[in-house]
Amino acid sequence: MTNNKFKILLIEDELNIHSFMQTILEAEGYQVLKATTGAQGKLIFRSHLPDLILLDLGLPDMDGTELIREIRSYSVTPILVLSARIQETDKVEALDLGANDYITKPFGTAELLARVRAALRSQRSFSGGSPQGGWKSQDLEIRYDQRRVFVHGQEVHLTQTEYNIVSLLALHSGKVMTYSAIITAIWGSSDNGSIKKLQVNMANIRKKLHSRPGENNIIYNELGVGYRMCEGSDWQLPEPGSQN
Fold first, then answer.
1. How many CB atoms lie within 10 A of CB 40?
2. Residues 52, 78: contact at Cβ < 8 Å?
3. pLDDT tens for each residue of 71-127
4. Alpha-carbon dihedral of residues 184, 235, 56, 97, nearest 10 degrees?
């Protein structure tokens, strides 16, 4: 049990899922605020200012994407979407509107709790500072003031574009960033070759960080959606020169 007293607003109208999630979260020490409609969720959010929102998109009185858009107009509180919608377009829309993460139903207890922890860590990192200092997780260190990256204490030489991508993902670690969001932040606009250009840079980054696609490493690719910089004990980079 975490005993952390973080407040989590759960906006979900399916009572069996609602009860299941409440039990899991409270067992971990989280305080759960409950809502079954979008209107009720908005009211509770403004009244209690939770640390995290768990949001179902299929609400009885509105689409959850409307709620994401409204909350993002005045708050950066992490939003974790829980939905039975499996189309990539639905995921991309929710993430582009400002959701921090997207879990497709059905999901397991371990996955849910890991995503909750990542979203809360991401919010603390985002609130705690600017890219003037540094960022460190496991074996990867970024020194923003020097624009330098280290793995296992050894400097990794990235191009300017590669550094900008790694830096951006680290600033939003724990959050899925869509291809569109990354491309806009790095290049300012997109064209027909933008995703291919991003993929080429990402392949070079992974090679230099000794990170391999498909393994439980630092940069996770949600196919068709975007990339996520993992945190904490969720990943480990092999030593340079390692054959593993």
1. 15
2. yes
3. 888 777 889 999 887 788 888 888 888 888 898 888 889 989 988 988 887 665 544
4. -10
E strand intervals along the chain? 7-11, 31-35, 52-56, 79-83, 101-104, 134-137, 140-143, 148-151, 154-156, 176-178, 219-222, 226-229
Instruction: In the chain, count H helices and then E strands.
Output: 8, 12
The rounded Cα 242 to chain-centroid distance in angstroms is 29
* Cα–Cα distance measured from residue 12 to residue 36, given in angstroms and rounded to the nearest whole number: 5
8-29 pLDDT per residue, tens: 999 999 888 889 999 999 999 9
Q: Which two tokens stand for residue 104?
A: 């497709």
Q: How many CB atoms lie within 10 A of CB 191?
A: 9
Which distant-in-sequence residues (6+ apart) come within 8 Å of 199 by Cβ? none
DSSP alpha helix (H) spans, 6-131 = 15-27, 38-48, 64-72, 88-97, 109-128
| Bridge partners of residue 219, in order along the sequence | 229
Kindly compute the dihedral angle of the four CA atoms of residues 159, 161, 164, 169, in this order, to the nearest 10 degrees: -110
Name the region of 145 (left: φ>0; alpha: ψ -120 to 50; beta: rest).
alpha
Residue tagged 């979008």 (tokens): 38
